[in-house]
TrEMBL record:
The keyword Transmembrane applies. It is found in: Membrane. Residues 75-179 form the Late embryogenesis abundant protein LEA-2 subgroup domain. It comes from the Eukaryota. InterPro entries: LEA_2, NDR1-like. Pfam families: LEA_2. The chain crosses the membrane at residues 21-44. This is Late embryogenesis abundant protein LEA-2 subgroup domain-containing protein.
């Protein structure tokens, strides 16, 4: 039966040893570059802004003839949590829903730049387009909820944002903010929903 052994000691030529050395240097450089990139990415990576529903009201919500033309007012706190990164907002647009019925919508804020660590109060002043007594069952549910003192609504804000890292801008993101809350029968915000954080979709 043929048998063979691996050589115990393989003598490397100077060329092979030189190649090994170059490989080691190259790998070390790649590793160090990787670590530097990772640290840079950690410190420059943008964090998403945060939104809190500060206040919301529809005065005279409980009147009998429908919500049409009632003022819809709200305050949403926007905060940029980044130390070094500013945020450019395009125009912010707001929509208020009762279930899937649009209650009010319109522009909320002009385009603006939010510097690092900055915050802005977004003041919404819209006019209700519904529900009306003509909306049938939706209006009946709405009036019933108002009489019971608990009207569940949803405020959606949408915009386009861009992060600005010192000198370069990153790509545009479509942004959607989703605040769920309830109003009392008189159209003011339920206490437990004050300053509730809204969901953010990028
Ligand atoms: C926000 O939503 C409104 C209504 O759906 C739409 O007209 C507007 O173009 C949207 N804005 C952005 C920036 O997506």
């Amino acid at each position: 039966m043929p048998s063979y052994r691996l050589p115990m000691y393989h003598r490397q030529s100077p060329a092979v040893r030189c190649l090994n050395f170059l490989c080691a240097v190259l790998l070390t450089m790649v590793l160090i570059t990787g670590i530097i990139m990772f640290v840079l990415w950690l410190s420059l990576r943008p964090h998403k802004p945060r939104f809190y529903l500060n206040d919301f009201s529809i005065p005279n919500l409980n009147r009998q003839s429908g919500a049409v033309n009632l003022p819809v007012r709200f305050t949403v706190d926007e905060r940029n949590p980044n130390q070094k990164i500013g945020i450019h907002y395009e125009a912010i647009y707001g929509s208020v829903y009762y279930g899937d019925l649009l209650v009010a919508s319109g522009p909320v804020h002009q385009p603006f730049y939010q510097p690092p660590k900055g915050d802005t109060q977004l003041l919404g002043d819209l006019t209700a387009s519904g529900p009306t007594s003509g909306d049938g069952s939706a209006w009946q549910r709405f009036a019933g909820d108002a009489a019971a003192g608990n009207v569940g609504l949803r405020l959606m804000l949408n915009s386009t944002v861009r992060f600005q890292v010192k000198v370069w801008d990153t790509k545009e993101h479509n942004m959607k903010v989703d605040c769920e809350f309830s109003l009392r029968g008189d159209g003011t915000l339920q206490q437990q929903d004050k300053n509730k954080q809204c969901l953010l979709y990028f």
